Amino acid sequence: MEIKEELIQYSRDCLEDKVPSGKKHKQACQRFLRDLDLIGEESFPYIWDEEKAGKIVKWFSYLRHSKGELAGKPILLTTWQKFFLCQLYGWRHRDTGYKRFKKSFVEVARKNAKSQMEAGVALNEISEQATRNGEVYEYYTAGVKRQQSKIIFNECRLMLRGSPLKLKFKITRDIIEHKKTGSFILPLSKEDGRSGDGTNPAGLILDEYHQHTTTDFYDLGLGAATKEPLLMIITTAGKDLNCPCYIEEYSYCSKILDPDVDVHNDNYFVDICEADDSDDPEDIRTLQKANPIRAFFDAGIARLREEWEIAKEIPEKLISFKTKCLNIWMQATENGYMDMAKWKACEVVSLPIDTRNRPVYVGFDMSAKIDLTSVTFIIPFQSEELDKQGNRVVKYIVFSHSFIPSQEKLQEHIRKDKAPYDSWVRRGCLEITNSPIVDQGRVMEYVLQTCAENGWKIQCLCFDPSNANKLMSDLSDEGYTVEEVFQSQKHLNEATQGFREQVYCKNVIYLPNPLLNYAMSNAVIRQSNGMIKIDKDATTKRIDPVDATLCAYKLALYHDFSAEDYSDYLERYLKEMQQGKSQTE
């Protein structure tokens, strides 16, 4: 059977659940079948090269398994591995003959031969591909630490043991070189990612990208000046929903796969093998969705079941089981305040209503003046949805903005928190006030200017009085309604619990704001006598935007819509009266 026919049958079997498959893997199969139908159309400049697809299968058969019962035996690719690797090499541009895919993102549970596939591709690229293109290929492997970077590198060495291909390579402790072309594979250190000095990567492998806290290595892979560059990301789901892998790559790649989302990238191969939300972890089919190799042989299934039995008995192990064995992203903060998957579900690209001339509640967290200061605007509104009693459901639109005193403090936060504060400045979430301490005058100027530009009617300015007594007094003297919101469980329990409930009910709405997301993922709670509050002492990471949000929500919760409706009615009534008078005249 031709490889193309094998993959067509495999895709159909996945879509019909003959091969247990999660939603996103099914979408990857749909994409493959859809692309085959597009061959020959003017708008689709790609063809399927059966010979090239077959060559990569043959290449792996020359390499050797390095572990387990199959150690020393030729690597015979499974159909799922062919689904990835044969598409990587089989899809070609009809004019140039170059590979269609310049980037790939494959997410799958652990122990499913990720390192084997990465290593085999790296060896093929520096030999066959470099020879065909007449280039010297620089190929790099990148993990969060040098030892992680060397996992793929070491796998290359092991796969060449007993292989007829071994004589084509010169292997030393730190580099694998292809003798004919001078191309090489080299593991990178953390410093290499920061500087990128002197590198021109024809290929870069990002291993376990969920552990990377920055995009340094990813950015390095975008700088290739070769005919057929390839950036490979193969990872398992992680426990930090604020890492680049989740908020950028996983999110974007999910949209590429989703046929109902208008996001297309013909040069990016994507496959995500994960269990679906409602799946039963005890069902073998659930395990097979996330483990396309491991859950299809007896020893692998037995080990997965053992890990599930442990996870059931020890709650602390459950998150690891879900991320590593079911490939489901989880937030793993101990005593974490927010389920970040539910929080992210509230994010929208456009607001459902026009917010102009709406009432707004403004919350402040002034913090220490050399640290972050945050403000949150909350606009409550009655939606068209009805609750069980037939009342209109109240929803809350949240805008957050933060301030930091200086570029020096910005760099200090980047180093200390290992978070991209500079990126947040560029995205407009964070402002540098260029002052020795955060300029409270600038903060209020921003708040009043923002409200004026949008016609927002300030209902209340809500402060924790710490670091803000003078400002609160001045604003009160100017005629604003100012409320103190003390940071105690007694004062904040209702707001803290209530806001989270509204998030879980999807009654909170916010536009993309990575700094707010970062703070929300950091927030942990302290409990006492059934009451909770955000625990500022339990984390060294920033939570200021969350404090400001809860501060505003405490008052927004009690917004009086009857007064708002009456004023709107009065305004319309007076306008109609004026129009009637004009017509009479």
UniProtKB/TrEMBL annotation:
Alphabetical list of InterPro entries matching this protein: P-loop_NTPase, TerL_ATPase, TerL_nuclease, Terminase_largesu-like
One MF annotation (Gene Ontology) recorded for this entry: endonuclease activity
Pfam families from the UniProt entry: TerL_ATPase (PF03354), TerL_nuclease (PF20441)
Domain Terminase large subunit-like endonuclease positions: 263-558
Ranges of residues in domain Terminase large subunit-like ATPase: 80-253
PANTHER family tied to this protein: PROTEIN YMFN, PTHR41287
Protein name per the record: Terminase large subunit
Species, as recorded: Eisenbergiella porci
Lineage: Bacteria, Bacillati, Bacillota, Clostridia, Lachnospirales
